[in-house]
Amino acid sequence: MDPVATAIFVGMANRVLAKRQPDLVRLEGRRVVIEVSDLGKSLYWMIRRGRIAPAPVGAVDLRIAGSAKDLCRLALRLDDPDTLFFARRLVLEGETSIGLHFKNILDSVDLDWFAPIRYLPAPLGPRIRQTIDRAIRITQADRRLHDILDRALQP
Amino acid sequence: MNDHKPELICPAGGLPALKAAVDNGADAVYVGFRDDTNARNFPGLNFGPDDTARGIEYAHRAGKKILLALNTYPQVHNWSVWTTAVDRAVELGIDAVIMADPGLLRYAASHHPGLRLHLSVQASATTYKALEFYHQRFGIRRAVLPRVLSLQQLWHTIANSPVEIEVFGYGSLCVMVEGRCALSSYITGRSPNASGVCSPAESVRWEETALGRESRLNGVLIDRHGLNEAAGYPTLCKGRYCTGTQPYYAVEEPTSLNILDILPDLFRHGIAAVKVEGRQRSPAYVASVARVLREALDTCASDPERYLVRSQWTAVLDRLSEGQTHTLGAYHRPWH
Ligand code: SF4
């Protein structure tokens, strides 16, 4: 895959996984390839010093393969990997435990869309955050967004 | 016995799944600590100290409960890991602990008399006499029954039970009398009761070959799935074996339990809670299953006589299921 796409993936993954470094250290040195089967692209990466880093093309410990759509559905948490795996839409070859470990780390990340608000000057931050939180709850905006994405990415 | 609407108990292997359960209609969420004190001891799964406290706060704020599974069997050399976990549960304000080991139940009952105890499915108690024993000795308040009873056996147990009864409502099947499965030890040397896992990931290998996907457990071929054939978890009980000429599912097929069809009966007989399997699954699974079961329970509660399973409920659940199909499991067996 081209270096820009790899850099974007690596950057985003490290952002999401920033707090999970201690868990990632346990996978130190392991190499993974994600193959986007319908696009014919492969993304090689590895765990280096508790972070995701680009890896050279070559031998890997784990191979993950799926269509672009399905991989997006996984990344957006619209599907769980077991579901796609049962349906034969996800391939996992090599050291299964790396895949399971990584999946569990990802699942444990509490995605916080409002993190930037925290940097607002106190006491503004918490108040705005509360307001937004409440607004989301009342309008169910998160569920709606979820449903829209789900429909857009129907297999 | 209580005859009101059964509680919906959902699984969570991490904070996002816990939130998904609470937001989508669970009455209680069951979790485990990140160690071998529970029967889903998978790498990276479960709750560390911070997550547990945050999860409890999230659930309690929404008026929901958190149950903690401490349902594996401690050994002599690691006994204190389990007792420390019980103490921690009390400190954290867990609403109930789910346990199987009689020694640990005794510890909890004597050190924390106020702690609500549920008997885990791993204890494999299938008769009301067994439940009476756990009730008298340790004061358990609820029991989760193994997925091996026929409906007649279930009604009989509920009618005579001194404690509330919780049954599995949806999720992967463990076909043995839970807690007594020695199949997995035979091939991987591990079992749910002792290690909290029956098919440890390090023993599992999948390979895509020209003939299909091959699943191996500790090097032993347990199944081969043709190109578009739906698959399940790589447990020994759900492999295909040759006992004659053709390989077939000799023990159990890859499929998931689904009790939507018998919900009105469960209501009538006074089931206290319906449990969803799957602490190893992701938040997306928990959210979908919780939503469907919430709707089904509410529909059934409002008019059990006219209750009908909606086809979209079944569609959603089947999609998430092993083998993408469902079964009533032992519930529909004619034996008594
Ligand atoms: S091998 Fe099958 S029956 Fe045995 S513990 Fe595992 S899932 Fe249950």
Across the major sheet of chain B, the strand order is: 1-2-3-4-5-6-7-14
Low-confidence stretches of chain A: none
Which structural class do the helices and strands of chain A define? alpha+beta
In the CATH hierarchy, the architecture of the largest domain in chain A is 2-Layer Sandwich
| Tally of helical segments of chain A | 7
- Unreliable stretches of chain B (pLDDT < 50, length at least 5) are none
Protein name (chain B): Ubiquinone biosynthesis protein UbiU
Cofactor (chain B): [4Fe-4S] cluster
Pathway (chain B): Cofactor biosynthesis; ubiquinone biosynthesis
GO molecular function, one term (chain B): 4 iron, 4 sulfur cluster binding
Main features:
A: alpha+beta; Nonspecific Lipid-transfer Protein, Chain A; five-stranded mixed sheet; B: 336 residues; alpha/beta; 2 domains; eight-stranded parallel beta barrel; 11 helices; 15 strands; binds iron/sulfur cluster; UbiU (chain B); Peptidase_U32 (chain B); ubiquinone biosynthesis (chain B); Ubiquinone biosynthesis protein UbiU (chain B)
Please write out the topology.
The complex is a heterodimer of chains A (155) and B (336).
Chain A: H1 3-16, H2 21-25, E1 31-36, E2 41-48, E3 51-54, E4 62-66, H3 68-75, H4 81-86, E5 91-94, H5 96-108, H6 124-139, H7 141-152
Chain B: E1 7-11, H1 15-23, E2 28-31, H2 49-61, E3 65-70, H3 79-92, E4 96-99, H4 102-111, E5 117-119, H5 128-138, E6 142-144, H6 151-160, E7 164-172, H7 183-188, H8 192-195, E8 204-209, E9 212-217, E10 220-225, E11 241-242, E12 247-248, E13 256-258, H9 263-268, E14 273-276, H10 283-302, H11 311-320, E15 326-327
Parallel strand pairs in B: 1-2, 1-14, 2-3, 3-4, 4-5, 5-6, 6-7, 7-14, 13-15
Antiparallel strand pairs in B: 7-13, 8-9, 9-10, 11-12
Helix pairs in contact in B: 1-2, 1-10, 10-11
Bound molecules: iron/sulfur cluster.
Iron/sulfur cluster is lined by residues 174-176, 181, 183-184, 192, 198, 235-237 of chain B.
